[in-house]
Structure formats: C-alpha cells, structure tokens
Description:
3 domains; alpha+beta
Amino acid sequence: MSQADEKLSAIAEQIRKGVAPPQETVRSLLMWFEAARRGGRVVRRVRRVLRRPDFEFSYIDSPISFQKAPPEEIVGGIIRDDVVPDPTYRIDRLPSAHRTPLSVAPDDGLRQLVTLMMSNDFSQLPVITGPRDVKGIVSWKTIGGRLALRRPCLHARDCMEEARVLKLDESLFSAISVIAAHDYVLIQAPDRTLCGIVTASDLNDQFRLLAEPFLLVGEIENGIRRLLHGKFTLKDLEAVKAPGDDARVIETPADLTFGEYIRLVEREENWKKLKVEIDRVAFIEQLTRVREIRNDVMHFDPDGMEDADLRLLREFAQFLKRLRDVGAM
C-alpha cells in the first residue's frame, strides 16, 4: 500500500466514524503522492484518488481539510460538479507573502533602522505598533529625502511615509503597479495581521519561475521547426496529421503539433531526410519527454517545475542550438 493509500484510508475511516480528520497542508498531500510540486501529471494522480479536490491554486503551505464528498449529481448523462478551482493568480501564492517581515517601532532610532536594513540587505522596513497596526514604512528613499532636506530624522516616525498594503487574497496583477511605483507592498492576512512583504525582487523571481519554461518550450519548438524546414514534402507532412483532424490545413512543419513532430521523425525514411548524424532513438526519447513536460507547462503549475524537468528543457534547447551552430540545420 502506498503512503497516499495508507493516509487517505485512515482519513476515510475517521470521516466514517464522524471524527474530523486533522488539517494537512498542500505540501503534505503532495508528499503522500511522492511529489514536490503540482504539475499536470501529479494533479491528475490526485484527482484519480480524491473526489473534487480543491488544492491546485492554493499556497503550497496553506492548510487543507478533508470531508465526505456529496453524492454525485448526474444531469443529462453528465456528472455535475459545482466545485471549480479559482484560477486567479493571487498574492497568496508567493512565499514572501507568508513571511512576516522584520519591523520597527515608531520610536526606534535612525541608527537602529540603518543597521537593520544594511545587515539584512533590506530596502524598507514597516513601522508598526502591533501586528494589526501599521503606521508607515521607512526606506532608504525616505531617509535620504529627509537628510537631504535637513529635516529631523532621529526616529522611525520622523522618516516614514504612508505604507502600501494589499490583502492576501488580491490578484497578483493588482500588486504589480503598486510595486512598480513603490518597490514593495505589505501583505495583510484575512485577520488583518501583517503577514508578508512582496518586493520587486520577489516579482522578478516569480516571473522567472513562471516564464522560463514557456520561453524554453517556445525556443525548442522553433528549433524543431527549423530542423524540419525544407526537408519534407507536403505528402510527408500530411501523412502524420492526427487522425480525425482532416479539416486542418498542413503546409509547413510549423502547422504540425508536437506529437506530429515525433510521428514524423519516428519513421526511419523520414529521419534519413534530416541528414543529422545523431542517434534517432535517443533523440525521439528526449523529444517525447519534452512533449510531456510541455503539456504540463501549458496546463500551468503554480509551484513551478520539477528541477529535473527544467534542466531537461534547458539542456535540450542548448542541444538544438549546438546543432544550429555546426550547421546541421
């Protein structure tokens, strides 16, 4: 019995006895399935075991509860499911939104502020009098502005400005303009406590996490099209078109799907037309793996990619570049 089967069987037994199972986190649930992130394949595995799981778009360390699923309602031969995950990319998903920031009190002195900011490489510090009472924000900009104008700047209250605060459940896109203008935004939990700070650096990291797989997949697809360009007749291309997709017009390799690229080069007579001195079987194995990863990328994974998958995309993109560099395509 797998760990997932063992854990979920115990939870099901508790529910049958009328006992509320303890909460777990999304991360714990994934570990039961021997996974670290919510890629498309992992999500499908979980959905085959749990009915109506709502865990795809939550923060990975947020709590989840287990309860008995209501009876399925079949309408017109279709199973009705009223639970539809919210696809909005919210601030909640950023790890920095769940790390309570270092803060100072209004009466803390300038020397203390500077020491904290320099020693932690911070650009700003929230000024608070309690976990729900944010008085302002101190930054290098506010300190420098006061000192340049020879204004009093002995304590935090002397060199703070109004803090920019957003709620944890707001769209990440609503934070982008605020961060672009102020370099940060403070994050407030549902109970109004200060629970995090998101900076321009955090946005940069998140953009790289989300964008790199898309960019690599695009680079690989363009590389494959270049490899195939001018090597095949229209008849060759038409022959690998997916069955039942007769209405789609195929004129160049760019009109093929990724699966059709593989079907095209799987045929030994087609492979010979490429005139590249590399192993066909190994190339097709790599291309098939890229196709599987591509499907996960297109279905979007809020936790980013597995390190091994991202490494494979990088290496395959680099491999195609080497082929171009030596004139193989």
